[in-house]
Here is the input.
Amino acid sequence: MPNLPHEPPDRTLEEVTSQFLAAERADAKQLRALRKELGRSVTPACGLLLVELMEQDTAKHIRLLSFIRDHIARQPLRYLAVSRPSTGRSRQRRSPEVSVS
Here is the structure.
């Protein structure tokens, strides 16, 4: 398991992650269109299986990149929490669900 740094966020990593997320989401959209196109063919089974596997791979990439994006977004909060006195109240943050459809 890689060690996630607890240092100030890297803006380059944030930008690259956003670019990869956009590319993966565009791929997901193209795969949905390809699935529809293959569904109309005479022998769609093999093609549909390949598209399904590619969709799963794309969903995995989106989930991983979303995790990185969310980790980067929380970095400043960690530093603020360390530098501010505690108020005794704790907040729980939930990460948003990722949808590929």
Q: What stands out?
A: Residues 45-83 form the longest helix (39 residues). The CA atoms of residues 74 and 93 lie 10 Å apart. Confidence is low (pLDDT under 50) at residues 78-101.
